[in-house]
Amino acid sequence: MTKDLKKCITRVSQFLEVKYTEEQHEELQEHLKIDNFRNNKSVNAELLRDLGIIRCGEGGFVRKGKSGGWREYFVGELNDEADQWIEENLKKTDLRFPES
């Protein structure tokens, strides 16, 4: 995973034309590790939980850190409702989602 993260950081920094020292690169890799990301108060909606907007015990914003993990939760009727909502609300736009 670290190798993929390093490669991703390098690609993004090249795209943004930003140069990092090796030390900055390592700090950024550490900051972006899924466990650190999951524990980041700015990311995990801790304030919203403290304010009662999100119920305690509900899953946080960052779940497993796997691409496509939403498919485990977004099944059956919920998926059908979303498809219907998308069809009805986007039909007058040029926004299209790829067919799966």
Automatic annotation (TrEMBL):
One of its GO terms (molecular function) is sulfotransferase activity. Residues 1-93 form the Sulfotransferase domain. InterPro entries: P-loop_NTPase (IPR027417), Sulfotransferase_dom (IPR000863). Keywords: Transferase. Belongs to the sulfotransferase 1 family. This is Sulfotransferase domain-containing protein. It comes from Tenebrio molitor (Yellow mealworm beetle).
